[in-house]
Amino acid sequence: MFKKIVLSSDHGGFNLKEKVKDFLIKQNFQVEDVGCNSLDAVDYPDYARILSDKLKNNKDTTGILFCGTGIGISMAANRFKHIRAALCTSVEMASKSRKHNDANVLALGGRILSEKIALEIVEEFLKTDFEAGRHSLRVNKI
């Protein structure tokens, strides 16, 4: 179980980030929001880097990234060696990303997911553990 959750978004993911943040706080998670802080246009690679820096050397911390589709910000985050960001559009994807890929960052699309589905994905991602075993061999090859 992760002790801390870092949230980061560009303007396209801002509204969903705020909804997820409220949900996580109500669930008593320790949450750090590193921006963005409005709907003003910003560049998603900058916010992926900020989150990635926060996760470096913090194995008990996870991150959730948001942009319009989740694609760009997940691609930007995966540039960093210590990040395994999974763009998830279903609960099943969230489960498998943790069980099989040991994803340490979840990416969500603020313009493509409903709040209900997004919260279900977040719940699944946070409660699911890595199965290790044969999956460790594969993850280690990344």
Q: How would you portray this structure in words?
A:
The protein has one domain: Ribose 5-phosphate Isomerase B, Chain: A, CATH 3.40.1400.10. The longest helix is centred in the N-terminal third of the chain and has 13 residues. It has a 5-stranded parallel beta sheet with strand order 2-1-3-5-4, with helices on both faces. The protein is 43% helix and 18% strand. By secondary structure, the protein is α/β, with parallel strands linked by helices. Helix 1 crosses helix 5 and helix 2 crosses helix 3. The two termini are 23 Å apart. It has 6 helices and 5 strands. The mean pLDDT is 94.
Indicate the topology.
Layout: E1 4-9, H1 14-26, E2 30-33, H2 44-55, E3 61-67, H3 71-77, E4 85-87, H4 91-99, E5 105-109, H5 115-127, H6 134-140
Parallel strand pairs: 1-2, 1-3, 3-5, 4-5
Helix pairs in contact: 1-5, 2-3, 4-5
